[in-house]
């Protein structure tokens, strides 16, 4: 099991929670060697412009959080596949491991990850939005093996981790941010660990939901269709340093991609 360093990222959270205006974050280093410990970033975490401009209604609004943060709502949004896709991630986790979840997820996803690592493991959940952090802390408040802190998925704090679980994050970010997140998360994985991406994928040509998903993406998810055109590994600056496996679900609408550092 990789040793988790629960170091003092609290200073960043205190800056955000105090209402002090954060300064612009430093540029992202595309790739960090997974063999090296990942320090907690010293600069404040900022809410990206795309999140404020495109997804304020869903993730930064108390009304949006109140509407969407229910297991049955998430289950409906994913066409009944939430349990199946959660299980696809949980199956990659062993008790006692350290796990990074680099963005909050509505519903009970984080609690399932915490159950998977068990009392001897550790789950770190991060997000750039204080309102999401507050919601995750409420859900995980009685779970001692879980920590929830502000953090940017492109600059993951702590680690390296045995497992990084990136669940439906990439479809919500612009192309340059997809690259920064993929590279940042690959750099946070231990040499014997893995990163698990679950997200949208190009459907089969005759999928009955294709017209509906076109409409949803065109109106509500402007960055999602890039995952119909690109493989997740294409966003990695050094993809050859990892092995990549992919499974698809529900007629190709969803995918699970697992990347592991190559040995030697």
What does this structure look like?
The chain has 264 residues and is an alpha/beta fold. It has a single domain, classed as Vaccinia Virus protein VP39 (Rossmann fold, 3-Layer(aba) Sandwich). Helices cover 33% and strands 19% of the residues. Strand 4, helix 9 and strand 5 form a beta-alpha-beta unit. The longest helix has 12 residues. The N terminus is likely disordered.
Sequence-ordered SSE layout with sheet pairings:
Elements: H1 10-17, H2 49-54, H3 56-60, H4 62-68, H5 71-77, H6 82-90, E1 98-101, H7 109-117, E2 122-127, H8 130-139, E3 146-150, E4 161-167, H9 175-186, E5 189-200, H10 210-219, H11 226-229, E6 242-249, E7 254-261
Parallel strand pairs: 1-2, 1-4, 2-3, 4-5
Antiparallel strand pairs: 5-7, 6-7
What brief labels describe this structure?
alpha/beta, 11 helices, 264 residues, 7-stranded mixed β-sheet, 33% helix, globular, single chain
**Strand content range:** 15-25%
CATH superfamily: Vaccinia Virus protein VP39
- Continuous helix count: 11
| pLDDT < 50 stretches | 2-36
Shape: globular
* Secondary structural class: alpha/beta
The total number of structural domains is 1
Spell out the helices and strands N to C. HHHHHHEHEHEEHEHHEE
Helix content: 25-40%
User: What's the CATH topology name?
Assistant: Rossmann fold
Strand order of the largest sheet: 3-2-1-4-5-7-6
Which CATH-level-2 architecture? 3-Layer(aba) Sandwich
Number of strands: 7
- What is the rounded distance between the termini? 19 Å
CATH class: Alpha Beta
């Amino acid at each position: 099991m990789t040793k988790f360093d629960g170091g003092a990222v609290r200073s960043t959270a205190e800056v955000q929670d105090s209402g002090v205006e954060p300064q612009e974050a430093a540029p992202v280093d595309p790739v960090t060697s997974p063999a090296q410990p990942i320090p907690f970033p010293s600069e404040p975490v900022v809410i990206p412009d795309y999140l404020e401009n495109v997804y304020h209604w869903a993730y930064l609004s108390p009304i949006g959080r109140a509407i969407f943060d229910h297991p049955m709502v998430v289950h409906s949004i994913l066409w009944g596949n939430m349990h199946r896709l959660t299980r696809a991630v949980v199956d990659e986790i062993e008790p006692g491991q350290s796990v990074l979840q680099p963005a909050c997820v509505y519903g009970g996803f984080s609690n399932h990850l915490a159950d998977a690592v068990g009392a001897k493991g550790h789950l770190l959940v991060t997000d750039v939005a204080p309102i999401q952090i507050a919601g995750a802390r409420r859900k995980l408040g009685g779970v001692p093996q879980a920590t929830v802190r502000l953090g940017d998925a492109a600059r993951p704090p702590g680690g390296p981790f045995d497992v990084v679980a990136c669940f439906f994050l990439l479809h919500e970010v612009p192309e340059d941010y997809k690259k920064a997140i993929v590279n940042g998360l690959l750099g946070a994985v231990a040499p014997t660990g893995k990163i698990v991406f679950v997200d949208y994928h190009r459907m089969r040509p005759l999928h009955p939901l294709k017209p509906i998903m076109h409409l949803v993406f065109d109106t509500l998810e402007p960055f999602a269709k890039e995952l119909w055109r690109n493989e997740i590994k294409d966003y990695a600056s050094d993809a050859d340093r990892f092995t990549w496996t992919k499974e698809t679900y529900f007629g190709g609408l969803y995918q699970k991609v697992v990347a592991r550092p190559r040995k030697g």
